[in-house]
Every structure is written in C-alpha cells, then in structure tokens.
Design brief:
It contains 1 helix and 24 strands. The protein is mainly β. It folds into 3 domains: 15-109, Immunoglobulin-like (Sandwich), CATH 2.60.40.1120; 112-213, Immunoglobulin-like (Sandwich), CATH 2.60.40.1120; 218-318, Immunoglobulin-like (Sandwich), CATH 2.60.40.10. A hairpin with a 4-residue loop joins strand 6 and strand 7 (101-110).
Amino acid sequence: MLSGIDVTLAPARLARISGSVVDADGKPVTGGVLMLMQTNGGGFFTGASAGQIKPDGTFTIVNVAPGEYVLRVMGGPGFPGPGSGAAESISANVTVAGDDINGLRVTGVRASTVTGRIILPQAGSNAIRPSSIQLVTVSAQVTPIMNGGVGGGRVADDLSFTLKVEPGHQFIRLGQTQDLMLKAVRVNGEDVTDSGIVFRPNEDVGGVEVEVTTQHSELSGTVSDARGQVAKDYSVVVFSRDPRRWTTASRYFGGGRPDQDGRFKVRNLPPGDYYAIALDYVEPGSDTDPEFLERIRGRATEFSLNEGQVRALDLKLLSTP
C-alpha cells in the first residue's frame, strides 16, 4: 500500500465555445454533429465531446477544459464524415485557455482529387480483381473516430483510380483488402509511402502509383510467464526500432492477443527492424504513444523482417511499467 502521497488539485476554468458553421460557399450548414477532439499536441487525440449544429448553422459547446482541440463536423447535410469521400470537409484547430470563445466561424474546404494507377505484382496478378481493391487516406492526425481512413475509393478494371482526399497531411493506404499488402506509394516517381502528401483544398494530384504485393509478412509465437508456462492473457506490442516511425499514421506498428492455444499472430508489417514485447496490460492507444514506447523499448526483444517473411518469436511475459 502506498502512503504519504500528496496530490494538489488546481482549479481550471471551463470555457464555452460558440459560433457558426458554413460550407465552402459561405452557406450555413443546417444541422449535424460537431465533434470537439482534444489532442496532446503530438497528433494523438485524448478525448472528445460533441455539440449539435442548429438549423441556422450556429452551435454552442460548454464545459471545455483548457487545451488544444480539433473542431470537426462529423455528420450533417453534405458532410457525412470520414470514409465517405465527401466533396467537402469542415474542421478547425482551437486553443482553449480558460476564456470563452465567441463568434468562431468554422468554414468548409473542398476536397482534393487524386488520380493514378495500381501496380500489381507480376506473379499471380491475374487472380486479383481490381474492384476488390479499396484505397483510403489516413490523416497525420488520427483520431479514434477517423481511424478507418477517409475518402475511400474503388479501383476500375484498367487499374486506374480516382480518390477524393481531405486537405491536409494525408497518407494513402489500402482499405479492407485481404489478399494484398501495400508495398509503395509514389507521386511522379517519388516515394511518399511513409512521408505522406500535403494536399491543398480543391487540388488535382495526378501521377500517383500505388504498388501492392501478395507477399504477406507474419510474426507469430507464444508467451511464457514467470513459471515458464504458456501465458493465456497478454498483449503483444510490435513497433519500429526507429523512433522517427513512431507517428500516428505509421505502418510500423502491430499488436496481437493470444488465441485459444496461447499463440499470437501479427501480419502485414513492412520490411524493417522492430521491437516486440509481451505485457500483462496495455492501455488502449498507448501502444502507439512515443512516451510509452520509449519506456518499454529497453526491455523489448529485437528482430527484423524481410518482405513476405514468416517468422516465429517466443517472448517472456512482462509487467506493464
């Protein structure tokens, strides 16, 4: 039992945010849901609240603690939210310091249009139906609500695609495509797979190549407890050995839970050098938090993966720091 710990609570004034929402033409958005999502400043979101947009386009959100926020229309006429490929999006960054914010005008911006081609692997490409390939974009600022990507698009029979993309820093990724794995994204020959693309409103971006592969990587194994027995309750965290890849939209994260036999499996990691660690508990969202990863990296097991490699790795169960 811990004793002798003093906790000092400092009062914080809760603010009120009010204003109006208009589309890219300056017309009021006549209803919908406005999400206020708090960020820790590094692109990771830590909480959210919601407000209703009134028929005249105005809104009020109360009891907002000091912090950095993203204000975003998640539903309403013409703005169905992420994943829809909508022609416009509406969001704004807001800093709350304790004082009320009045008269905030949140304005829509038109989506960018991306055109390009899918590059299939030479072997086995005849068995791949282009219509089964789905592309999405993932924002550099990933929220729990936006985690599935935005601006989903399908691929035509000639392997061409057109994708509506929300302005800002975005990453092109594969959607729910079971038999394929993303290999590279190039714009006019430049590799932007992990650097992403910064899109401007109403911009047309062509010359995009999305290369896919059927060579899936796989990491699997078991976890043993302090008595040397196979553990049945744990979480495996896999992350890049390069801290520069510890970003919200990184491909270099993975995780797994045990099946009924106590085995874990992590698929579709890109080639690279990784850490893996098995912990008794992982708080949701912390497995991609740079501060948490820095704390656990010293106890993690190092390994490397090549393209399409299937690798076994057995781990020891550790307590979460």
